[in-house]
């Protein structure tokens, strides 16, 4: 329900929240009043809005992800070496959620921050995270997801996507060329825990006008894989 609030809809009535969430008015009223009592939502007359306290939920989640602390210094070095931004994300349903980010000073169209969500199928980190799913879960994701043509380059064919995810398993990385947004390229690698399970994805993203696909493969990929291996080693050492 909290997700119904956004920069476009920062304040809403009970009816508006019910319409956006698909829940009954009675359910929405009960939940909103509970959130008001807990301090996560404020109420002025008929209008509800989020309070700064809701940020505590996000910080609590991030603090529970030990891999973020283990990765920060490595990500900073990676971003400095390639002179492009580096991010880390985890899978949440059909989307990836950004949990760490070292931005470049270069200007890019897409604005990302901690907590940003993007569709998994159209991102390099998403494909890496999908590659870590068992086949039945991957098949379920592909069957239930509506694939939107975000750019002329977006892969929306289910068989093609399944092939790309499985190829990512074999290659150990995923490269996405302008599928999320025209002009944006990214390459990602998995972070594993001590049991070999993919727990996060690490990427380097750049503008297509600065870096071509071949350079990403030749220059960025080795450094990305080295950094991912370094973080995985730390995660394994502390038994994440």
Strand line-up of the largest beta sheet:
6-5-4-9-8-7
What is the strand tally? 9
Class of secondary structure makeup:
alpha+beta
The percentage of residues in β strands lies in 15-25%
Helix content: 40-55%
| Overall pLDDT level | 88
Low-confidence stretches: none
By CATH reckoning, the class of the largest domain would read Alpha Beta
What's the oligomerization state? single chain
The arrangement of helices and strands along the chain is EHHEEHHEEEHHHEEEH
Q: Strand count, sense and closure of the main sheet?
A: 6 strands, antiparallel
Quick description:
With 240 residues, the chain is an alpha+beta fold. It is built from 8 helices and 9 strands.
Describe this structure in words.
This protein has helices at residues 14-21, 25-38, 55-64, 66-82, 124-131, 135-144, 158-171, 213-237, and strands at 11-13, 41-44, 47-50, 85-92, 95-102, 117-119, 174-177, 184-192, 198-207. The chain starts with 10 loop residues before the first strand and ends with a helix. It has a six-stranded antiparallel beta sheet with strand order 6-5-4-9-8-7, sandwiched between helices. A three-stranded antiparallel beta sheet has the order 1-3-2. Helix content is 44%, strand content 22%. The protein is globular, with a radius of gyration of 19 Å. The model has no long low-confidence stretch (mean pLDDT 88). The protein contains eight helices and nine strands. It has 240 residues and is of the alpha+beta class. It has two domains: 2-52, Winged helix-like DNA-binding domain superfamily/Winged helix DNA-binding domain (Arc Repressor Mutant, subunit A, Orthogonal Bundle), CATH 1.10.10.10; 65-237, Beta-Lactamase, CATH 3.30.450. Strand 8 and strand 9 form a beta hairpin.
